[in-house]
Specification:
The structure holds 2 protein chains of 2 kinds. Chain A has 17 helices and 20 strands. By secondary structure, chain A is α/β, with parallel strands linked by helices. Chain A folds into 3 domains: 203 residues, FAD/NAD(P)-binding domain (3-Layer(bba) Sandwich), CATH 3.50.50.60; 113 residues, no CATH class; 118 residues. In chain A, strand 13 and strand 14 form a beta hairpin. In chain A, helix 7 packs across helix 8. The longest helix of chain A has 30 residues. Chain B folds into 2 domains: 178 residues, FAD/NAD(P)-binding domain; 285 residues. Helices cover 37% and strands 19% of the residues of chain B. In chain B, strands 1, 2, 9, 10, 11, 12 and 18 form a 7-stranded mixed β-sheet that branches. A 7-stranded mixed β-sheet of chain B has the order 7-6-14-15-16-13-17, sandwiched between helices. In chain B, strands 3-4 form a two-stranded antiparallel sheet. In chain B, helix 1 links the parallel strand 1 and strand 2. Classes of the chains: A alpha/beta, B alpha/beta. At the A-B interface, helix 5 and helix 13 of A face helix 6 and helix 14 of B.
Chain lengths: 526, 527
């Protein structure tokens, strides 16, 4: 009889690897099965053209939990995160807004646009930091079940209650508003400068199928404020070697604890017997057995593709079918012969080393969303652009560069579907939009990779190409994620667990779902 | 100098309920109304000779039985007729979909449209009834103070918790899941017919500056559904003799309990002495003393104009300023010299007619809102019309009818410039053309048309920024966050000053309940 593992982790994305590392660290025999030839899922670096390395999908990091960095000694496994220090918003009229690490300079720059906004900018930052602090403990906890609380649920509810009480009325109310408002309304209460509001609100809509005026988008604003890199709050970072370096480090940590990782091993089905998961069948028919199976795939793929319908209660299946995973973004990766030259701020400078945000006004973003609502990609899309080779020169041949463009909105359900012609048109739209601000870009493009949400889905397997494995909407957060009643990483199939971003606390390179799921498995006696 | 125990500012429905409840408890109550009539936005007027229109609120959604019983409203002349067909959804091609209070009739009419939707209707009604039932109980309790509840609040929370537990585990989770959902998502889970979803979805955004894809609009639909019996949908109640009769009945109840009502008495400011309300100053300069002042006006008028920002902390003033609720709906009132032919309405339908809806799909509503996002009037607006004269012949000359059309979205603040006669006329023409395309022959019946834009509402009713509902019912402005997070107990930073208008929990459309809770808050506070 073949070897029986303690645990099989389906999917070698960063959460799957984190879960594997924690289980292996606790002495369990773990096997990770990844369908692609490399681990990482959406967290990969690939050298698609000689010398040009792309962070193909996910491209920045901020949410990665510090306890995971520590527990898995990721620094020792080669992870180094370089800070992204500025945000540059070029404007159509030839002006720009540039915020950087120098506090006084940023203040002067905002003052140039609006003295009033410059006055409240710091206070706003303090409030957001407080809010993020208030939410952080919640990210690290298993969501309690408020409807049928057991002893542990009561404990964590009480913990949550005292946490909320400790916040005090004012901060609690600000948090409650933040959870329910739109990014536009929330920012309107503070600021008047359009590019400032738009660039800030952009982080509230990244990865979601919401516009800045959609209620609920303010919360995602906070989600992106919760990062912590080397103790520095809310800083975005870039991993040396691209985002793939993060998954390589976690994989290396997992291996060092004894976990086994197999690539080119696509799982086709979970084997069940009497309502209990026994193992998995691979695409080539091989069967592998384990005491528990944990899937880091998104809930739809886990339950609707890997599980037999008969293994799941109808209500649960319906709830999973209702789970909102809406692909809303695309990615364009460029190889450049030379740096782009922005008309509003020519030449080389700090503004190219950070994030370049195409978000001139709230109306611009909202109109980009309007297109997507009715099944078109944005004619004037929002973009978060990075030139990783300026931060880590190893990403491109000397003198040349790679450019990563995160583009929104690109609806998965495009009218007429994502044909090759549509993909090309989408890529052209992105390049044309960028050329409005940096006209020399076009002639310097050596290679262009355009990824529609459909492409992201077909390569990574993420349903609809959604980077969060499910919308971070109010009705899909905390004890409602992925579906009410099943937010504690367990599933209706005994010994089958979920450990991907589709579970609390959700997407981003965060690792918390993998870690919390591993801890629940161990608690269940694995 | 004159004095009273309690002064109530404004004589709208909530103010009158508060007056009645306080007077019944033995307080000496004085109601001061700026206009020459009671009722506030529950108003009727003869806009065209012989034709009596409900000018602002055109129907009731719920009249809590507790209130009508306690205040003996029927004895004071109130008679509400609940439409047997709350919704008639029209399509351009002459098709229509009637929804009835009687679930079985609705199922029959849905079958013509979609067998699947017809099959699902009873289950949807049952789910909606359970969720709305929970809201109904929540609305009859004052909003608790969160996160630091007092003893009374803790009791409210316990009661709410028990109510929620009574729903059962899955139903309670379903409640938590549905309330923050968008009405589009919720309806898409149930139905496939665009006409049905469009007509229902319009209810989720009624008087809110959001489209049906916005989170929290499912709550909007349930909010207007709290008065519904099982099988019913978003009830429509017409007050016999016109909406003004509601205010008159409430005023009679308050007076019977001993309250005094003074018309034509505009309050210019609230007197504050060392952080405590001391009375009011009228526009004519005279002062009236009272230790308790209850304002039915919206929080901005009450706190920033009548009290004045100087008495309040800057942070609090900012939060008051940030209350969202810009008027987003207009009315077009049409005097008809006869009834046009409604194609496709089953026999007996016209007598039972409640709300006529032109909202053919959720996308239609969403696109209508897209215009409002950029400060424009919708090209193709959502229309909801009532013809109260169908069930009450006293409202118009024999054979003639009054038709009031709610038009959404018509932002109070237009980017192109303020509302004026030209823009009102354009709106009227657009609405009439849209109606005529759905109800052939309507245009020929029109004797007169009167438009009320949000700017008119502001002028005529003192509606803040043209909003008859004072504050949007959005997720960040409900329960303990209505009107302001932390100030949902009808109290204000000024001791003795209370608020009872629809900007307070539970909000507009829940007739009189904010006034009821405000009065109880007054009675439960030790002087």
């Amino acid at each position: 009889m073949a070897k029986r593992y303690d645990a099989i982790i389906v999917g070698g994305g960063h959460n799957g690897l984190v879960a594997a590392a924690y289980l292996a660290r606790a002495g369990r025999e773990v096997l990770v099965l990844e369908q692609r030839h490399l681990v990482g899922g959406a967290t990969v670096t690939e050298e698609l053209y000689p010398g040009f390395k792309y962070s193909v999908f996910s491209y920045v990091v901020s949410l990665l939990r510090p306890e995971i960095m520590r527990d898995l000694s990721l620094a020792r496994h080669g992870l180094e995160i370089l800070p992204l220090e500025s945000t540059f918003t070029p404007l159509p009229g030839g002006d720009y807004l540039l915020r950087g690490p120098d506090h006084a300079q940023t203040h002067r720059e905002i003052y140039r646009h609006s003295p009033r906004d410059a006055d409240v900018y710091d206070e706003y930052g303090r409030l957001m930091a407080q809010m993020a602090m208030a939410v952080r403990p919640i990210l690290g906890m298993v969501p309690p079940d408020p409807a049928a609380p057991g002893w542990r649920d009561l404990q964590s509810l009480a913990q949550l209650g005292s946490h909320v009480r400790a916040l005090g009325g004012e901060r609690f109310h600000a948090l409650a508003k933040l959870m329910t408002m739109s990014a536009a309304d929330f920012l309107d209460e503070w600021f008047e400068c359009e590019p400032l509001k738009a660039t800030m609100s952009a982080s509230g809509i990244i990865g979601t199928f919401l516009g800045p005026r959609s209620p609920g988008s303010a919360y995602v604003l906070l989600h992106h404020y919760m990062g912590e890199i080397d103790g520095a709050f809310r800083a975005w970072g870039f991993a040396r070697g691209g985002t793939g370096a993060i998954s390589s480090a976690i994989a290396s940590a997992a291996r060092s604890f004894g976990a086994e990782i197999r690539t080119n091993a696509a799982v086709q089905q979970v084997i069940t017997k009497n309502g209990r998961a026994m193992g998995v069948v691979l695409a080539d028919g091989e069967e592998i057995y384990a005491r528990v199976v944990a899937s880091s795939l998104d809930p739809k793929r886990t339950f609707l593709k890997l599980c037999a319908p008969a293994d799941l209660p109808t209500e649960f299946r319906e709830a999973i079918e209702r789970f909102k995973i809406r692909g809303s973004s695309g990615k364009v990766n460029l190889s450049l012969a030379a740096l782009p030259n922005f008309t509003s701020l020519p030449g080389m400078g700090m503004h190219l080393r950070g994030s370049i945000s195409i978000s001139p006004s709230m109306d611009y973003l909202e109109q980009a969303f309007d297109d997507a609502k009715y099944g078109e990609f944005s004619r004037h899309p929002y973009m978060d652009v990075l030139i990783p080779s300026l931060i880590d020169p190893g990403m491109a041949p000397p003198g040349q560069h790679v450019m990563s463009c995160f583009v929104q909105y690109a609806p998965y359900n495009l009218k007429g579907g994502w044909t090759d012609a549509q993909r090309t048109a989408f890529g052209d739209t992105v390049v044309n939009t960028l050329c409005e601000y940096a006209p020399n870009l076009r002639e310097n493009i050596l290679h262009r990779q355009v990824l529609s949400p459909a492409d992201i889905e077909s390569v990574t397997g993420l349903t609809e190409g959604n980077i969060f494995q499910g919308e971070l909407a109010l009705n899909q957060l905390f004890f409602l994620r992925p579906v009410p009643g099943w937010a504690q990483y367990r599933t209706p199939v005994r010994a089958l667990y979920q450990c991907g971003s589709g579970t609390h606390p959700g997407g981003g390179i965060c690792g918390a779902p993998g870690r919390l799921a591993a801890m629940e498995m161990l608690r269940d006696g694995l | 100098m004159r004095s009273s125990d309690c002064i109530i500012i404004g004589a709208g429905a909530n103010s009158l309920v508060a007056a009645a409840v306080l007077a019944r408890a033995g307080r000496k109550v004085l109601v001061l109304e700026r206009l020459d009539r009671v009722g506030g936005t529950h108003a009727s007027a003869e806009l065209h000779p012989g034709y009596r229109f409900d000018t602002a609120m055109t129907s009731l959604g719920w009249l809590p039985p507790l209130l009508s019983r306690q205040l003996r409203l029927s004895r004071h002349g109130l008679n509400v007729h609940w439409a047997g067909m709350p919704l008639l959804a029209l399509e351009r091609d002459g098709h229509s979909l009637p929804l009835w209070r009687d679930e079985r009739r609705t199922v029959r009419s849905l079958r013509m449209l979609s067998v699947r939707d017809a099959e699902r209707w009873p289950a949807f009604c049952a789910r909606a009834a359970r969720l709305a039932g929970f809201l109904r109980s929540a609305y009859m309790l004052p909003a608790p103070q969160v996160p630091n509840p007092g003893l009374g609040d803790a009791w409210t929370l316990v009661q709410l918790g028990l109510k929620a537990r009574g729903l059962g585990r899955m139903e309670m989770l379903e409640l938590l899941r549905v309330l923050p959902l968008s009405v589009s998502e919720w309806l898409d889970e149930w139905f496939e017919s665009d006409l049905l979803k469009g007509a229902l979805g319009a209810g989720g955004v009624q008087n809110i500056n959001l489209g049906p894809q916005a989170a929290g609009t499912a709550l909007g639909l349930l909010h207007h559904h709290v008065g519904a019996a099982l099988g019913d949908i978003r009830p429509v109640g017409f007050v016999r003799g016109g909406m003004a009769r509601l205010g008159e009945a409430l005023a009679a109840a308050a007076q019977a309990a001993g309250a005094t009502i003074e018309l034509n008495s505009a309050v210019a400011s609230v007197l504050v002495r060392s952080g405590q309300a001391a009375g009011v100053v009228l526009a004519n300069g005279s002062e009236i003393k009272a230790a308790t002042v209850v304002s039915g006006l919206d929080p901005k008028q009450t706190l920033l104009e009548l009290v004045g920002g100087d008495w309040l902390e800057p942070g609090f003033v900012r939060r008051v300023n940030n209350i969202r609720g810009e008027g987003i709906a207009a009315r077009v009132h049409l005097a008809l010299d006869g009834l046009p032919v409604f194609p496709d309405v089953p026999s007996g339908g016209m007598d039972a007619l409640g709300r006529i809806s032109i909202s053919p799909s959720l996308e239609y509503v969403e696109r209508a809102h897209d215009c409002a996002k950029y400060g424009r009037v919708s090209n193709a607006p959502v229309l909801e019309a009532v013809i109260p004269s169908l069930s009450d012949a006293s409202l118009a000359p024999a054979g003639c009818h009054v038709m009031s059309v709610a038009v959404q979205y018509t932002p109070w603040h237009l980017r192109a410039g303020a509302w004026n006669a030209e823009r009102s006329t354009a709106l009227r023409d657009n609405v009439v053309a849209l109606l005529d395309a759905h109800i052939p022959g309507l245009r020929a019946r029109i004797q007169a048309a009167v438009v009320h834009t949000p700017a008119d509402f502001e002028r005529e009713f003192g509606a803040p920024r043209g909003n008859l509902y004072h504050a949007d019912l959005t997720l960040d402005q409900i329960l303990f966050m209505r009107p302001i997070a932390g100030w949902a107990q009808y109290r204000t930073p000024v001791r003795g000053l209370y608020m009872c208008g629809p900007a307070n929990h539970p909000g507009a459309g829940i007739t009189g309940v904010a006034g009821y809770h405000a009065a109880r808050a007054v009675l439960h506070t030790k002087p």
